[in-house]
Amino acid sequence: MFAGTKLGRIFSAVVASLFAACSGTSRDATLVLSLSSDAAISDPNAPALGVQLTIGGHAAWFVFDTGAGAHTLASWFVDRAGLQLESADGLTAQDATGTEVAVQRIPAQHAESLDGHRFVVADAIVARFPPHFEEAAVGGLLNPQLLATPERATVLDLRSSELRAEPYAQAVRRLGAVPVASEDLELCTQAEAPVPNLLYALRVRSQNGEAWLKLDTGANITVFRAGSPITQGLPLESGGETMGVAGRRQPYQLAREVRLSFVGHETTLNAHVVESTAEGCGKDGLLGLDALSSCALILGPDSLAFACDP
Question: N or C: which end of the chain has fewer CB within 10 A?
Fold first, then answer.
């Protein structure tokens, strides 16, 4: 995801074991957030599960996005809140379409929900988002797995629209979750990245083969990269256009009635097939909310588990 004069070429799908010290000691151990899919942020080009938070004395919607390699704040919000940026000359990232975006770095910030829950948003990047994010008062994308610590996982329940902090083993027992086997899970790491970052890629199987897809609750629709094994033999229809944070429009084709299975869960969906996605973690595309909406995700620093409805 990051590139720059000191970091070498762009490597989009970043996962890190870099956790700011304050993110482990200052978080609310009883953190429970009710998420919303309010119409104000239910844009076809933007993710929808968010929460209203106050950062730097200013309130906005923030979306919990497992596909954002790092916490990413919108430049309009940073400007409005008067937050202090740090120098990061030459730093770039890639959005979901693989388009390079210039970014800056911002130190850790304290966040507070409307009902008084407080936690630390670790060091983040700042990018210029398309205008509809500001129009919908979306201040950024928060990576929920970066809220996890060795003691407590982040439980993102997409069925009940809730995020909570809970010990990993306790959450697995409570939800009857299935941990992802190590051979089906990829933790992508770029230890020299300038901010904490973490992504997961999951082995997914279909009637045509298998693929490694990035876990992405910030995407409404599952996306396959054209030419990947999972697309072989799929009948494709003319589709439309999609757009990443960089604002570049990307055409897609539509693959209907694709049967996918992962961690014992099966689903059928209509996927988008595009020419390019972000490089790195999840080389064959991304697994979106259409596949995940009936699941709870237990997100740990080095582990992942699913509890999905039939």
Answer: C
